[in-house]
Amino acid sequence: NLLAGTLISPRHVLFAAHYDNITTNRTLTFVDRQNNVVTRTLVAKKRHWEYAGRPLYYPDITIGLLDSDVPTNQLSYAKVLPDNYANHLRSGDRLPAICLDQEEKARLLDIGCIDQVSGTRVETYAHLPLDGDRLNLHEKFQSGDSGNPCLIFLNGTPVILTVWTSGIFAGGGTSVTAFKADINQLMSDLGGGYQLTEIDLAGFTPLP
Asked: What CA–CA distance (Å, rounded) separates 122 from 36?
């Protein structure tokens, strides 16, 4: 249940680089809505070429390759935001987000910023929810939650923003949105025939 990975294509998985100790030829387990279990073998993985370990842990990105596609009629994979997302979402401040943990619980957080630039780093970070109903569905991070995803849902589609590097304050990690090109390069290097899929925001009215 530790060392979590998130499907970002039918054959690729996103991990946090600082917590990617799962070895190749190990089995990854996925569960669909009807509790049917799908297993695949991790056959290769690759860290971001600029990853720096302690104390930065940045860019905190590792991509894994599965031995074969998961069945997309059973399992969905996370999409990513397009480059023009700010026309519709601005910074994302206070959007509700789902954060998974090592116990596979879905906890609510509020997004702070989708692409927060700090020096040479671009990160996604989250706030504690302000709304009481959201706060009732929140729980603090604990050791071992690293690598789990932060997702928003648009028209019922999961959109990944980051995988957790740190649970300090309410949580943060390397921005997937800012690193799409690099993630696509890692996916190409590993093979498998897929790239990230951007969610189509054309049906959303741009903000004034």
From this structure: 37
